[in-house]
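Board notes (copied after class):
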Amino acid sequence: MRALPWHVAACIRVSRLDDAPLEDDIMRRPDTLSDVTPASPPARETIDTSRRGLLRGFGLASVGVAALAAGCSPAATQADAAPAPATPEVDKSVAIMGANESPFGPSPKAVEAMVAKAALTARYADAEGEELKKQIAAIEGVAPEQIFLANGSSPILAAFGEMIAKKGEGQLVTSIATYEGVPRAAAQYGAEVIMTPLTAEFGIDLDAMAGKVSKKTTATYVCNPNNPTGNMVDPVKLKAFAIEASKTAPCFIDEAYLDLCDDYAGNVMTGLVRDGHNVVICRTFSKIYGMAGQRLGYGIASPEMAKEMGMATRMGGVNHLGIVAAMASLADKEFVPTMRPKFKAGRERLYNVVKALGRPIASNPQASFIFFDAGMPAKEFAEKMMAEGVRVVGRSWTKYDNWSRICVGDDWEMDRCETALKKVLT
């Protein structure tokens, strides 16, 4: 049989998915919409739009024009050369301070893995998904059957909300000023949603929530650290609450921001699942892992609940490159310990700026943002910030119409935001 040309043969080489090493104790221990339109932002900085500039923006310039001309995929060529992906140009026309993304980006190992595996995205990632579940299960100390994946955590929240709505017969007990994913979905499917007030310190009032749990209750929901307030509940109280509430109905604990807090090991609630309580834990790679645009989330629950939730969230399959990036991120043992201090420094800087301006603020933020009283309707505040080239959340939360949330940004975003805050709030 006639040999294939070298460039065709090079293109069709597909290597086996490497077995990524597991994350160790340093990273994770087992127990451990804006309404504002950017009307007139500052002038956009010059961005290289040449072919090589665009390739460089996607991390492919180093592949080489000759290889592309030969008909070989960038991923296949890069598997041989393995150059480091280039950093794309950054649009600095608007500082994005309202989306709770990571301004620091994903692990370089995750980027390299995605580039190397890009040519495989024509295939569903069933095998890779099962491998990722095994890795997460080993880290969390549970069985792989207790892990389920989704394209981000949003599908998990929505599916849970629909499930516990019980076709309009369900009841969810949660808090005001918390993340809306589960409450919104439950309400849309006809469930009664009971929201208790925050404490005087802007924390979730677990005692008040416990007082609302009844035979009609089909779920409780706690976001910890809470979004938008950023603070946390006492882990001893949360564990006691979850154990008692889960005797009536599943208790859903949303730990999207837990990796960002000062004491991950002391606050993680996976042990409740291991001990057999009717608790669901939800996590995401969108925050500290810097994969908000790549969409990968997971849940931890009993095997029965995980199977039911997995069938509801998997649909046609889970993002192939998201799975690849997640495995590479878990294998990068230095990434999370490097990110935590950056987020902490950013939120403390924002906190100190707002506090110095005399604005009421939720104390001890533990996520990637702060929550404070802007002294004006949230939409008005967002419009004034946008006029200064800073985009923040333009909507408000029940009983907190004048309060706004601002998240950590890159250095240039933080500088611009601080300048804007001093102008708008004084």
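Comment from the instructor: The first strand starts at residue 95 and ends at 96. The chain is about 40% helix and 10% strand.
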